[in-house]
Amino acid sequence: MIATTTAVPNAPTLSDLRALNEAAMPSLFQLPPEVEELRDEVRDFAQTVVKPRTLANDLAPADEFDWEMVEAGHRLGLLRLTMPKDLGGRGMGVLGVAVAMEEIASVCASTALIFGASLLGQTSVLFSGDQQLQARFLPSFLGDRPVLACNAITEETAGCDLLIPEHAELAEDVMTARRDGDHFVLDGVKRFITNGKVAEWAAVFANIEGNPGATGLTVFIVPLDSEGVTRGAVADKMGYRACLGTTLTFEDVRVPEENIVFGEGGGWNYLTVQSNQARSIVAAISTGVARGAFEIAKEWAGERVQAGKPLYEHQFTARKLAEMSSKIEASRLLYLQAAHQADNMLPAPVYGPAVAKMYADRAAIEVAEEAMSIVGARGYCREHAVEKLVRESFGARIYEGTPEVLALAITGALYGRRL
């Protein structure tokens, strides 16, 4: 016989909405204490520092940059998240960075990308294990003044094809590096480089002259005040407007050979590792965009009354909210798993991040559009946060792997071959 009068210990009651909410969304993934602490710190930063500035930064001219906001993030340690503690950093891996980026992106994806792109640029120096390079290029991130880095991969005629060895030789007019004594001379143009307008240095991918494609791809650390480097105009983007993307032109730029990371021709192997990390983090940014849009829609659906009851009590809206919430939970679990794999060198290094990014990017668009639908005409206005989140939801589909490239990576992993 089933007892019906005995209370279940710690069971949430119908009046305990917070407990019900937590009980409805359990997670098998337990974050390490230091990552939970970071998440809470960054959530506070996002709400108190980033959120009040989001609208102004989005409406500002394309070439304006909010250094004050970056400086506040620098004081929190966001520009040295992945640096080892013995070097003065916070010692976080991909998991910590991804969780932090979700928090910022729930308010402003472009702000998350400022910090994420700088950390990505640093990765080349950190991963190199080259103490001389680290001593030259990492201390600037520990000073009082915020310093940004960037990653320069995309070219005028080459982007995702650089990630596919069989296609890389077909990428014409890519940046070249010609040896001249103990230096290399770089010539070429990089496009849509996030932080390119404001970064101190860049991890630049170029092909050793005479070695096209993956075999010659090499990473150079290049200070962007070097003679021959020109920063172009800032792209006037649909979204991600707080982070500045620009063209970087290199004309006879001399770079000492000691600025090579991973040796001559080591760029492609590093690029695949870096891409897997970046895709996990971008999936987290897309999750944040979806979450931010959902939270606005959820609040509105609780306040807005139609036909005598709140919107969320109407069956059609209730289903929308349920599906939106489910997509966010799935996106989060996928990126957490991918980040965990990356940090622990577990199997499926390509499959996991590609799945996480492809799903989260699509979910962000779908959730943001549904949020605008729930909010209605207000959400279609420039001064409303949902309108901005809708625009930003499309950005992640372009960088760090389009849906088409991700599909090739996923299907190739399923069949054990590269497509």
Task: Please supply descriptive tags for the structure shown above.
419 residues, alpha+beta, Butyryl-Coa Dehydrogenase, subunit A, domain 1, Butyryl-CoA Dehydrogenase, subunit A, domain 2, Butyryl-CoA Dehydrogenase, subunit A, domain 3, 8-stranded mixed sheet, two-stranded antiparallel sheet, globular, disordered N terminus
Top-tier CATH class of the largest domain: Mainly Alpha
CATH topology call of the largest domain: Butyryl-CoA Dehydrogenase, subunit A, domain 3
Structural class: alpha+beta
Listing every helix as H and every strand as E from the N terminus to the C terminus, the arrangement reads HHHHHHEHEEEEEEEHEEHHHH
| Poorly predicted tracts of residues | 1-26
Number of helices: 12
The gyration radius over C-alpha positions equals 23 Å
List the helices and strands and how they pair.
Blueprint: H1 17-24, H2 33-59, H3 67-76, H4 94-105, H5 109-128, H6 131-137, E1 149-152, H7 165-168, E2 176-180, E3 183-194, E4 201-208, E5 217-223, E6 229-234, E7 245-256, E8 260-261, H8 267-303, E9 305-306, E10 309-310, H9 315-344, H10 351-375, H11 385-393, H12 403-415
Parallel strand pairs: 1-4, 2-4
Antiparallel strand pairs: 2-3, 3-7, 4-5, 5-8, 6-7, 9-10
Helix pairs in contact: 2-3, 2-4, 4-5, 4-8, 4-9, 5-8, 8-9, 8-10, 8-11, 9-10, 10-11, 10-12
